[in-house]
Amino acid sequence: MASWRDEKNQKARVRLEKRLTEFFPPCVLSHALRQPLIPPTQRRAVESYWRHRPLLADRLARALSARSGQPAGWQWRIGSDKTSGVALSFRTPPAPYREAAFARGSGHCCVCGQPVYRLGWHRDLWGDGKPNRNATWHAACVVAWQLWTSPADHLKALKRRQGRKCARTGRRLLRSAEVDHRVPLYAVWSEHRLLSWPELLAFWGVPNLQVINRAAHLDKCAEEATERARRRAVLLSPSESGADEPIS
Question: Mean pLDDT over residues 190-209, rounded?
């Protein structure tokens, strides 16, 4: 098995180095050559680099989004038509540049709105000032979007970030530990949706993600369910709404 892998890696390394461009990111090359199976192309090396760094990808994607800023006239809303690009649920991160009305087109990332350069990179390392007109995603933004929409898939990285301690109890994380949003997404929709778009993204990103043991997660969910029920009762209460008050 080791002989087979060594032979495969030797061929992949020759192929990668043969096609290596002058300004290829050194950090990506270093990462690629450390992998058990070396990626044979520059693009696959870039994808592997970000796939192994989801927390860094999240931070970069949010920084690029802050650079683009919120488009004029955009507001976070829930849609019913998939073709418009508007999110169908408050659980999906708001993404104005994925909406048909605000999309910047090919050569720009549909997540953060910034130009996409060669190999899905976020900076013009090659200095030609030409975005890749065949690309609509940064390699980093692909991984960041996966983290935002499926944080449980990145449990290992989030555990490591917390020192393998439960964020709610401080005890050691068990194998059954789960990823949770500190501020639940229903509360983001009801209480924070008027924040600017770059600020909103933090609620899906690392600043709002925590890993907690399953028992603690169940307790937190019960507390949240009780709070939601209390809010609904207040909204539906005739005395609160003034339905029983005489009309003056």
Answer: 96
Three-class HEC string of the chain: CHHHHHHHHHHHHHHHHHCCCCCCCHHHHHHHHHCCCCCCCHHHHHHHHHHCCHHHHHHHHHHHHHHHCCCCCCCCCCCCCHHHCCCCCCCCCCCHHHCCCCCCCCCECCCCCCECCHHHCCCCCCCCCCCCCCCCCCHHHHHHHHHHHCHHHHHHHHHHHCCCECCCCCCECCCCCEEEECCCHHHHHHHCCCCCHHHHHCCCCHHHEEEECHHHHHHHHHHHHHHHHHHHHHHHCHHHHCCCCCCC
Measured between alpha carbons, how far is 170 from 189 in angstroms, rounded to an integer?
Answer: 29
pLDDT digits (tens, 9 = 90+) for 15-45: 999 989 889 999 999 999 999 999 999 999 9
- Identify the H or E element spanning 159: helix 155-161
**Pairing state between β 209-212 and 178-181:** antiparallel
Q: Where are the domains of the chain?
A: 1-52, 151-238
Residues linked to residue 180 through DSSP beta bridges, in sequence order: 210
Q: Supply the DSSP symbol for 210.
A: E
CB distance 110 to 98 below 8 Å? yes
pLDDT tens-digit series, residues 48-63: 999 999 999 999 999 9
Distance from C-alpha of 99 to C-alpha of 131, rounded to nearest angstrom: 20
Q: What is the pTM of this model?
A: 0.89
Q: List the end-to-end C-alpha distance of the chain, in Å, as a whole number.
A: 87
Kindly state the tokens that stand for 92.
């999906």
